[in-house]
Each structure stands twice: as C-alpha cells, then as structure tokens.
C-alpha cells in the first residue's frame, strides 16, 4: 500500500466527516491516536470536546441551540485498563462494556450497525489500541450499509500487530461531500505519524476544511510507561 500525505488528503476533501487516525510515532516509542469531527448543520457544528476521566466527551457549545442530541453527543474516547477505545459514536460504550465482559473488539460490535440517519446511513468507525508490557497493537472497524441499502450491514475489521514506527492508518466516514453522503470505501489509508504531537495536531487542524471542522483530539501514549499526552482543539471557544 502506498503511503499518502494526510495533509493533502484532508485539504482535498471538504467533508470527510469524522475521522480516526491510529499509529506509531516515528521514533517508535509512542502509540498515537487522533479523532476529528466536522459538521454541515448548525446542530452538528454546535459542539466541543471536553475531557472526561481518561477520555473525552462531545458537549453542546451553546445548549440553547441543541436541537437533537442523538448521534452527536457521545464519548468518542474511553480507556479500559491498557486499552484505549476511539469511535465516532456511542458504540464507544458498547465496545467498553463488551470488552469488560471479555468479548473481543469485533464481538462487541456485533450488536451495532451503521447510524440510522437515512439517506446517509453514516458508517460507524471504531478503533482499539492495546498496550501491554512494552508491546503495542491496534485494530480498526467500519460498519456500513451495502451501497446505501439499510437492509444490509457490511462489517470490516482490520488488525495491526506491532505497527511500524512512523506509520498509521486513517479511516473516515465519507468519501467526500454530497447528498446523500457517500460512505468510506476500501481499507484504512496508510499515513505518516511524526514524533511531535503539537506539530501533528497543528497539521491536522490546519488541513481540515475551515468551514466544516468542529473539534480535534490527539493523544500520544508512551508504550513503555503508559504516560499520556493529550491535545484538544475546538473551533468553538468562549
């Protein structure tokens, strides 16, 4: 698989929707995750990321303008022991609860499918990072409709054992803007992951469409010690 420029990929797509990047820093010492949200409607754009425990939650920036909390208010990131879960919806809780009952990542998602937001049927994208005794692996999942048909759910899981230094995978909800919005196609894209968290976060934020971007989360986890560094950027600030 050819490595693509994540910056160019984002700059050339006005509406990738929500996106997850997971990988390993160039020096090999950090497990890296990023998650961003975008919005076209006032309701979708009226959000911020706030920290909650070891994870984050979406929250209405102006509660008086919140018209429908379903599908937009959820915990994108939760931590279960040595596992970090990153998703674009409330399936974060499904994975957390399933894995807490000893189900696998894939088994936990069997009870879920794409979002019920006809005619888009937005895919549910999810990631799981596992760090233990100095080793690191991750997996990604997408649950999507079959060519826009709500009667059929396609389930894909991609597992990455001992990911290479400086490399990551990028998955997002939509191929591009449209009506209806076309679901992501293919396997997660191979991208470069730098050592500098601040530079990585800045590149991502500056590359996202300025009208549609809403919030960004980036986390670097030391594989040897478990120490976390987190960066949150919100377009809406008081």
Shape: globular
* Helix percent band: 10-25%
Mean pLDDT value: 97
- β content, as a range? 35-45%
Structural class: mainly beta
Please explain how this structure is put together.
There is one protein chain. The mean pLDDT is 97. The protein has 238 residues and is mainly beta. The protein has a six-stranded antiparallel beta sheet with strand order 11-10-1-2-12-13, with helices on one face. Strands 5-6-7-8-9 form a five-stranded antiparallel beta sheet, with helices on one face. The relative contact order is 0.24. The protein is globular, with a radius of gyration of 17 Å. A hairpin with a 5-residue loop joins strand 12 (213-222) and strand 13. 15% of the residues lie in helices and 41% in strands. The protein contains five helices and 13 strands.
